Amino acid sequence: EPPHVLHNLRRCATDRNGSSSSSSSPPHHANLKRASVMILLSQDLKILMTQRSLKLRSHPGQVCFPGGKQDPEDGGNAIVTALRETQEEVGLDLELGSNVSLPDIDTDESPKTKIELLCCLPTMESKHHLCVTPIVCHMPKVSHTTMSESLPH
């Protein structure tokens, strides 16, 4: 049952990280550019993936999590990067629930889809020498309208 699985994910992430989020990178990642990916789980535990355009120079056609490099306006926050990149790549304007605080960022007044932060997985170095932080979130209410309006046709 999904609620049981989500509870176990939260517990495992807390046991592994010592908290539900990871705010800093290991020292060996200090000089690398930072990036984040969004691992977004639906209520029935489906995972949102994207397919990169065949016209791109790097990784054309690759299936991946939405994500990308951290921008200066992200304030060094991996969660902010993952939220911004998800909006840019798939059009989902996401907002964390009220139990998580984020730095002030400029946003428009359009309605946002509420999601829950489950955990930040340990930061790792990619084969392209990026310091990547996977952000795992749960979207309890997935509207087919929201998804279909967000995805390219």
Automatic annotation (TrEMBL):
Keywords: Hydrolase, Magnesium, Manganese, Metal-binding
Gene3D superfamilies assigned: Nucleoside Triphosphate Pyrophosphohydrolase (3.90.79.10)
GO MF annotation terms: coenzyme A diphosphatase activity; metal ion binding
Domain Nudix hydrolase: residue ranges: 32-153
Cofactor(s) the protein requires to work: Mn(2+); Mg(2+)
Superkingdom field: Eukaryota
Keyword hit for Transmembrane: no
InterPro entries given in the database record: CoAse, NUDIX_hydrolase-like_dom_sf, NUDIX_hydrolase_dom
Keyword Transferase included in the entry's annotation: no
Gene Ontology biological process terms in this record: coenzyme A catabolic process
Pfam families: NUDIX
PANTHER family: NUDIX HYDROLASE, PEROXISOMAL COENZYME A DIPHOSPHATASE NUDT7
Protein name: Nudix hydrolase domain-containing protein
